[in-house]
Amino acid sequence: QVQLVESGGGLVQPGGSLRLSCAASGFTFRNYVMSWYRQAPGKEREFVATISTAARTINYGDSVEGRFTISRDNAVNTMFLQMNSLVPEDTAVYYCHAYGFGNKYWGQGTQVTVSS
Prior knowledge:
Blueprint: E1 3-7, E2 10-12, E3 18-25, E4 33-39, E5 46-51, E6 58-60, E7 68-73, E8 78-83, E9 92-100, E10 103-106, E11 110-114
Parallel strand pairs: 2-11
Antiparallel strand pairs: 1-3, 3-8, 4-5, 4-9, 5-6, 7-8, 9-10, 9-11
């Protein structure tokens, strides 16, 4: 059974940091491109960042470039998102996504709220 479980979300003040994790199981993690997306209330789901299978290729959405860092550890089937200099506009549910061999998997999401 495929599972993507996000964790690490919460409430943080503007300027603060959070580290999200996505634990994967039920598929060959190291062979899948992994990504983070987010969805704010009343808005469409937005691309945040993506990382290739061996982490050689990384891309970020314009709104997070320079503040967020995506990474992965294929030894423990986990992807991470280090989020720094958070602003209220980063408030959203953050989703983990896996893509490979024509398959697409989504996690259930973790809430990130940036507020004073």
